[in-house]
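If your schedule permits, I should be very grateful for your opinion on a structural question. Thank you for your consideration; the sequence and its tokens are set out here:

===
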Amino acid sequence: MSHHGLLIVDKPAGWTSHDVVARARRLCGTRRVGHAGTLDPMATGVLVLGVGKATKMLTFLVGLDKVYVGTIRLGQSTVTDDAEGEITDACDASAITDAEITSAVAHLTGSIEQVPSSVSAIKVNGVRSYARVRAGEEVALGARPVTVRRFETVRVERSSDTPVTVVDLDVTVEVTSGTYVRALARDLGAELGVGGHLTALRRTRVGRYDLRLAHTLEQAEALPERGIVDMAQAARAAFAVRHLSDNQEQALRHGQRIDVDATRHDDPVAAIGTNGDLVAIMDESGEMARSRVVFPAG
């Protein structure tokens, strides 16, 4: 297969992101497949894969904002901060009011310092944190700045079907890259004094790539070009666009800098050639525009 671009997958529950990449490599007939940010096995939804030359785009897509819908259970804490881990503590949440929930959610919205879940993929001295936890080690990760642009509760349901009364919240969150929704669930429970964990999570958008563009791997197998979004089209959806002249294209392909366009952009810019192909991802933050990565012609 010679097609290059992005494959927007609707990841099924129970699969790791590596599982999806391995299946996509067989589906697309190439080992040049990577992803722009993982999803936990429990989570479903948008997973952006780069195929062929488009793997070079992934570096610029990892940092895009993400949107999730999920369910947070107040009244129970788990070792993994989600439903896949063993319950470590339970506390009756029946006295928690809607007003208290609203106040705690507001406190976790905006620019915050978040301690990632100890079972995250963050490396500690070269070893993934989750691997250290599974080996029985105590792992204490440092807080890092993240931005929760939106944290909205859309449903509140109280249940006595568990040993203690729990409160289930259906939520929608929009966050910057590096934010852990599991940690938001944990911290919301801590804020309310009853503990909390995530019981369901679905990613609905990465940057401008949403579920409308996503296919299951089974659906992709039956689609022309396996449902891969052409590189230029994919770049137009993610970045500001600059159309090049033939001379500018040749300059970028030879590692030269070109004049900054009148509409200067601080973020990465997709440079499109006269034939409509993606030529490069450019940086226009300096006095001259330079390529950060150039894509081979053809």
